[in-house]
Amino acid sequence: MSNKRLPTNRDMWRIAAPMILSNISVPLLGMVDTGVVGHLESATYLGAVAIGGTIFTFLYFGMNFLRMGTTGIAAQSYGAEDWDGLRVSLGQALIVSLAIALAILLLQVPIGSIAIALIGGDAETQQHAATYFFVRVWSAPGTLANFALVGWFLGTQNARIPLLIFLTINITNIVLDLLFVLGLGMKVEGVALASVIAEYSGLAVGLAFAISSLRNHPGHWPLARLTNLSAYRAFFSVNANLFVRSMALMFTFAWVTAQGARLGPAILAANAVLMNFQNLTALGLDGIAHAAEAMVGKAVGQKDKEALRFTVSLTLKWSAIFAVGFTVLYLFAGPIIIRILTDLPDVRATAMVYLPWLIASPLISVWCFLYDGVYVGMTRAREMRNIMVFSTLAVFLPLWFVTQPFGNHGLWFALMAFMASRGIGMHIGYLRNQ
């Protein structure tokens, strides 16, 4: 095939760098939301946005398969120069995202009511949280379609457009936050409405560039593969497994939070502070994993095993470099970061006790981050699911149980073992198929 060649550092960074910037833009938006609402006259507004934001974080985290699954499928079509298949990968992802969004909208009353009740809070805060939820829920079609578009563009080896989509969403959201809340005097409904408009602004940008991109790859829209349910078998096979995998991951981190709460408020707060270290690590390593998804998928589509092996080696090298960098950063600047994140003496002191786990975390976690990207590109979602479920049920939970006498150290040990198990399992699985 004419475009067969070994990938380069430039190829990787052309995808990884924009995705790292995209990842960084997300917490910035959360800070602006918090800052705007935090200047209103009552703390209940801030609590309401926090509750509403948590609901959508959990709701949409489970739908992230729309991005991951689409990347692998689109990348393989792109590598094979199957331009009809490339259109099918986009069309199916958008149709499924719209169907899921429609279900969320139809079920918004029970979803919102149950979620708010489960999280709790005083009556006034819950009332404002409901206001926020029932406005922002109308962003669901735009949000889920954007997941599909971002995954599709990554599959076509293009990370600049996903960056543009994220920047459009976040800049629009920030501007409208300031306009609606500080300018027009709106409350939580202003923050929610800003999110709704921002998501559809990003969607408009994404669709415009998708249309433009497809013009460069002439082909046809096989309507039978978009309208016949049986044609979605491969799509659902990949994405159902990714959904289960995401649920197992969410369960593990929720368990860490819940068990930290049982160990006392100081432990809970310290663990929340320390999770920022894990999230910062993810910002860097996920960008390289996204590049692995796109480049591995392309190599699989080209049936080029040499390019596949070289891609894994290349992205693994850069992931390891980043992991060492994060470990060195946390080793020397960890106490400073903790002091920046909290000024509560007991929380600072408690976080310092458990900081060594986070210093080691990048070197332990790097393998599962990278191999997640490799497996997505290879569309080996079933294996990802099995390894994740095994690591949760056969590694994390048993180790947490037997190390309970060690308190929070046992909890962090179980989480690190969970990360290591995922990386080791996927590495063994990758080697077996070479």
Q: Could you explain how this protein is built, in words?
A:
With 434 residues, the protein is mainly alpha-helical. The protein is built from 16 helices and no strands. Helix content is 85%, strand content 0%. It has two domains: 1-227, no CATH class; 231-434, no CATH class.
Order of helices and strands: HHHHHHHHHHHHHHHH
Radius of gyration: 22 Å
| Separation, N- and C-terminal Cα atoms | 21 Å
Total individual domains:
2
The gross shape turns out to be globular
Number-wise, the strands total 0
Largest β-sheet summary:
none
Helix content: over 70%
- Supply the number of helical segments: 16
Q: Average the pLDDT over all residues and give the rounded result.
A: 90
**Low-confidence spans:** none
Secondary structure category? mainly alpha
Q: Name the beta content range.
A: under 5%
